[in-house]
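dude i think i finally got it to work??
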Amino acid sequence: MIPSSIYQVGVVVLFLVHIVLSDHGRGDAVYAKDGDLILGGLFPMHNFDVRTQSCADIREPRALKTVEAMAWVIDKINNDTTLLPDYTLGFEIHDTCFYDIWALGKSINFLPSERTAKGNCSCNTKYAHPEDNLGDGHCAAQKNIVGVVGATRSAASIQAATLFGLHQIPQISYQSTSDELSNRFAYPYFFRVVPPDRHQVEAIIDIILHYGWTYVSFLYSDDDYGRNGNTEFTEQAKKSGICIAWTQEISDYFTKTEMETVVRSLRREPYNRAVVVVLFMHLEEGKLFFETVLNQGVQNEFTWLASDGIGSFGLQGLLGVEPSAKGLLSVVPFSERLAEYDQYMITEGLLNTDNPWVEEYIESYTNCTINGICGNGTNPTDTLVMDSVYAFAHALESLLKDHCGLPQHECTAPYNGELLLKYLSNTSFESLANGWIEFNEAGEGSGRYAINHIVKDKLWDYDEIRVGEWSAQNSERLDITDLLVRFYTNDTQGKAFRVPKSTCSTECDTGYAKRIFIDFPCCWDCQKCHDNQAVINETQCVACEPPEWPDLNRTSCELQDPVYMSWNRWDGVILIVLASLGILLALISTIVYLANLTHPFISNSDPIPTMFIMLGIFICLTSCLLVAIPPTVTLCYLVRLLPGIGLALMFYPFSLKCVRLYRIFRQAKKSDSTKEPDLLNIQKQIIVIMAGLILQVGFALTWIIIIPPEIEYLFEASSSSPNGVELHKVCNLAYTELITEIIISGPMLLLSCLFTFLARQLPDNSYEARNYAFSAYAALIIAIAFNLTYLTLNEPYGKMFYRYMGIHLIAIVFMFCVFIVRLYTVYFVMELKLDKNRSPSVVSGIWRTRTRTTSSTVPITRSRRNGNSSSTGSTPDGIMADVAIIESTYL
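look at this
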């Protein structure tokens, strides 16, 4: 609570202000009518000139219609036999000149201490004291005011409410909407039939959101009304995701240059992107602003959204600046026109009135008839004035019924402001035009607004129409008819359903994140996210962890169904079919080979190294089949280990055979040599093979420890997939395995190629030597071609296909050239060429040959190990084939 000493000082100051402002000039006229109970009125009939500190020109005709509404409704109540039937209401209306300090000075006239001077009231009313009758129709003292209707401007109401609160005089405003007036501790005797600005700001915010605007400018008046509106709008805009490009306080005493600076600022980058400008100001500032906009020729660059400070005066208040105000959407406290009152203004109007401002209006507005037609509009404030008067009437009736059983002139209850305050708080009634009226705990009306719109018709005339409503009580608070709305910016041109864009930055395309500027939170650049990233909260690129991938909208990650190299892919079908056929053929070859293991051609050709080669073939073919199976971690271990092991088991024994081939024929080429070739026995061969195998396994296990096998999820672009990619579930193949194979098994393959090349002058009929050479060269070419393709491809299944297809082809080449050709020889060639009558000792002996590749006959020297006999001679081609086959004893 404010200390009483401050109250006293305040009262003294107010009286001094009253003395200073009492200049007996244009603003001192009083519109009054006597009655049993007197209501005060504060209405702005003139504008105020700040420079001269005096009331200036008369306001628009609508203001006269508003003040006349109070006189009309009081007459209606006095003629109503159901409301205050035994009492009459009177009024005393003062001009506030639309200025808060002036309104404060006029409010002093309503204080009880100021009602002691001789007045022009009648002494024949119920509350007149006989002893005050001066006999000339005047009283020695004016009657006290029971309550005050007004003021219009929030700043004026704040000044008046402070004063009336000190003297317990109830006040009801018909248009003041400042949130500051909701403070019941500071203004306990203040009521209003309109909602506070916080609801008005909510309505403005909802309109902005309805049209998708996110970037707006905000201009406000330099008083409590404007500043409180700015504070409330800033808070609610932030909560609603609306950015304020630029704010500026506007005063009605701005010079032309200052106002031009405001307009230029609105057009400056990036503020010019805020096509929507909210005008939370009074009509005076609004007209000055629109005049500047019109003079600058920028009326088609912006869309205006105004508060009730401008909107309550309608199109009539904007005469002369309509071209720059067209398209204006305004939010005003809801009120309807009253046909009965409009008819009264047309038929009788101001012809028989004591209104002191009528003559001045007639002089100023020659184009308007005196019946007040110029004052009509889409949002008539006059019915709100009527609601304010009716609220006092209903409260007074209840109070008088409860407390005035004494003789009328002895009853002081109507002048007990504290008592009347309680009745006003509980007052509710049906308005003449605006529905049900009641006050909430803050003394305010319901949060209901009308949305008005200034449009231009085809005849270039301007009109104001109602396009919607807003109510805080409804679940769908905003109800606006978009068909009726026209915006007149350069890109909309007044066409239906065309809405201007008021954004600092356009929305980013799918897959792009906003990079918001620090100083301008509604301005951003669009940053492209990677293909595997989803856009979270519109500002972050977040990678989706496999097996997830961004959804079609790129706003979240979703699980993908994996695709395997199996029957649903052509490469999978090829690998499965070829690997399966290869394994089957290898199995058949192995069975046939083992079945003929005692055959001299098989048993005398080192079958153990040969079986190592077959084991390697099996392992290689099996690894090719495994990659076409849905992968698991265990399977990944096998896929990475088996190819290297299989190749080692193939190349090491094969290289030993190629070396043996070369050394046998090199020794045989020495014409008179009887020395046996120096060859590794089977034990040493196994040692060499196992050493190579151990090296391969050791290196492979080392790499597996360093890079453990695991399942990888890889994505590949796919036109057949809804989101454009396919998920590949594969093992994490590493280049280290290929490097290990090159280091461990590669030298053995090169060694085989070298010795088969050195043995290129072998006899023409040495078919097995040719098969070895073909196997070595073919394996080298396949390894180089397919592994280079594997290294250069990026597509996961393509890499796997070429790597394992190369391994498969090498295994098939070895199987045909080492096994199948040998088995073919056993079953077909030897049966035709061997002489069944030949001595078994000849077949089982050790033969050496010395050959010339240019002859079809070969000199042969036979000898037994005991050296008992020998012979030389020429052998026909058929016998030479037998000899060549027998030579395989060394191979």
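The mean pLDDT is 81.
im so relieved honestly
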